[in-house]
Design goal:
Radius of gyration: 21 Å
Number of strands: 0
Distance between the termini: 37 Å
Order of helices and strands: HHHHHHHHHH
Number of domains: 1
Structural class: mainly alpha
Number of helices: 10
Strand content: under 5%
């Protein structure tokens, strides 16, 4: 009788490749789409929140007339001031809540450890889920904009380039923060707890409860140094103002260049 021995020794890093990554990405996308919670909060929740706030809160569809006439918000629908924060939230929800839980689950179940015994680079799993979550953020944000335009006639951004740049930097900075959390948590429950402790203060400082013209000065001054707050404020300026949000851009870039390399350096596979 011939006995076949299956080796479980790790494959040498030099022999690993990205071959098979496209199949891994397709498989992980299908699995991810089966998780209704992630799909709901990543794709649908931003639009549902816009609809709920716009129709449930009195006056949100009326033009803002109690702001100074030279204010960026004067004359625009109140719900419009809410949109930049919702777009920032669409990214932050996946970056800070969903991504860390995903990797904590993989680490807890030994998925990342088992990948080290295959020819596929284990980094492929990280990249695959970054692609999935970033793509979902883009879909959720785009859907929120379309729904807001159809339901409320949201004004066209004054500076489209500033808005797009702010969204891109916000995406980079918030996913850098999410990767930092994902780098070290070993249990899904821990990832969920830490993510929530970070996520909800970020929402407050980004103006989810006090958007645009009604945001207290101290909240705005603190929020500008957070990735979600800086993204919301920068998009707000690009949408309604005529200046350039230099400080907010610098803050988001700083979060990215400092936190992302740190997350990569300390990332644990087991």
């Amino acid at each position: 009788m011939t006995t076949t021995t299956v080796s479980t020794a790790p494959v040498r890093a030099s022999s690993r490749s990205w071959r098979g990554f496209s199949r891994l990405l397709r498989t992980e996308t299908v699995v991810w789409l089966r998780d209704f919670t992630s799909v709901f909060f990543g794709v649908l929740f931003p639009s549902i929140l816009m609809i709920g706030v716009g129709f449930a809160i009195p006056g949100m569809r009326e033009p803002i007339t109690d702001a100074p006439p030279d204010s960026a918000w004067y004359g625009v629908p109140a719900i419009a001031a809410f949109l930049p924060t919702v777009l920032a939230m669409a990214v932050g929800t996946l970056a800070v809540l969903s991504l860390p839980v995903t990797f904590a689950t993989f680490r807890d179940k030994g998925v990342l450890r088992r990948l080290s015994t295959t020819p596929l680079r284990p980094q492929g799993m990280v990249v695959a889920h970054l692609v999935i979550n970033v793509g979902t953020s883009l879909v959720g944000a785009a859907l929120a904009i379309v729904v807001a335009q159809l339901a409320f006639g949201i004004v066209v951004p004054e500076q489209l380039g500033v808005v797009v740049g702010a969204f891109a930097l916000g995406l980079l900075s918030m996913f850098s923060l999410g990767m930092l959390i994902a780098a070290v948590v070993t249990k899904p429950a821990t990832a969920n707890a830490i993510g929530s402790l970070v996520y909800f203060p970020l929402l407050f400082l980004a103006g989810l409860w006090t958007p645009g013209p009604i945001m207290p000065d101290f909240v705005r001054e603190i929020g500008v140094y957070t990735p979600m707050g800086a993204a919301a404020q920068a998009m707000d300026t690009g949408w309604f103002g005529d200046g350039f949000p230099l400080l907010q851009y610098v803050v988001m870039a700083a979060w990215t260049v400092i936190v992302l390399p740190l997350a990569i350096r300390i990332f644990r596979w087991t």
